[in-house]
């Protein structure tokens, strides 16, 4: 019975994190900017250069800055 409690808790955790995982940002290995996926500049990134970030914090850790066109959330200071 104890093994059943863990799987039941997992969907609750996934549901709580769902809004976070739906929003992601993209960048290019040849640039230092991150974008919303629908940005006109993001759409020009070659698949071989595409990087996905799960959060602004992840982009910040990799020294990326927000795109001035699509204006994703700014880096935290």
Entry summary:
This protein is 35% helix and 17% strand. It is built from two helices and four strands.
Describe it for me?
The chain has about 80 residues and is of the alpha+beta class. The longest helix is centred in the first third of the chain and has 21 residues, at about 1-20. Helices cover about 35% and strands about 15% of the residues. It has helices at about 1-20, 55-60, and strands at about 25-30, 35, 50-55, 65. The model is unreliable at about 5-20 (pLDDT under 50). A four-stranded mixed beta sheet has the order 3-1-2-4.
Approximate helicity band = 25-40%
Radius of gyration: 16 Å
Strand count, sense and barrel status of the largest sheet are:
4 strands, mixed
N-to-C series of helices and strands: HEEEHE
- Unreliable stretches covering 5 or more consecutive residues: 3-21
Structural class: alpha+beta
Total strand segments? 4
List keywords for this structure.
4 strands; 35% helix; 77 residues; alpha+beta; four-stranded mixed β-sheet; disordered N terminus; globular
Please give the structural blueprint:
Blueprint: H1 2-22, E1 25-28, E2 33-35, E3 50-53, H2 56-61, E4 65-66
Parallel strand pairs: 2-4
Antiparallel strand pairs: 1-2, 1-3
